[in-house]
Design a protein that fits this description.
Layout: E1 19-23, H1 48-62, E2 65-67, E3 69-70, E4 77-79, E5 86-87, E6 90-93, E7 98-104, E8 108-114, E9 120-125, H2 127-132, H3 134-142, E10 149-153, E11 163-165, H4 166-173, E12 183-185, E13 191-194, H5 196-206, E14 212-214, E15 237-243
Parallel strand pairs: 2-7, 3-5, 4-6, 10-14
Antiparallel strand pairs: 1-15, 6-9, 7-15, 8-9, 8-10, 11-13, 12-13
Protein name: Purine nucleoside phosphorylase
GO molecular function: copper ion binding; hydrolase activity; S-methyl-5-thioadenosine phosphorylase activity
Keywords: Hydrolase, Metal-binding, Transferase, Zinc
Length: 245
Amino acid sequence: MNAWGEDWLTPDWPAPAGVRACVTTRRGGLSVAPFDSFNLGDHVGDDPAAVACNRRHLQEVLGCQPVWLAQVHSSVAIEAARGVCATADASWSAVPGEACTVLTADCLPVLFCDRGATRVAAAHAGWRGLAGGVLEATLEALAVPPDEVLAWLGPAIGPASFEVGSEVREAFLAQHAEAAVAFLPSHNPGRFMADLYQLARIRLAAVGVNAVYGGGLCTFSDPRFYSYRRASRTGRFASLIWLEP
């Protein structure tokens, strides 16, 4: 139990005072199986009324305004705008009380802030987004010197559970040769076990962001989280970051 009243997570990182962040879990909502119970995704086939109630509860508990995105595994990063659900996979904000929000169920959520607590951002980074440069695009939109940026890696499918084809490995190696360390051969010929956390750290380091925290929570093996690979018909949990009003 934490300050949110459920088993939601508060990121463990040295974010400056004035920056708040939260990751929801499956608990605390109205959705029924297989979306039970705190599903926040409005595109997965859940009852729209239940999703709307869950989203209202989220806003009431956190005391901020989540800004939702229509996520498409792109590298598009935008400025968050209340009341606008833009097609993008990352957003940033300098407006207090406005929460940059991403939904995931195995993809990697990455939260950002600057050391001066003036800007925050959130990115949805599955392997396609990572390879496509969504983290780099988010940092460019954030417009903060890289040595002033802190990043936190939220719950995602872990390296023991994320099997991919050789084309995924090649997509990353074509950009960063050091990404080879993030892929271990699977017991299936021509397949690899991929480490999204390590891939994110490599790409962030390449653009000068070295204050990176989090990592290690596997959505596939941890029943607190939704996992698309564990059950393709499932909900989505949220990772949010905002400046205190």
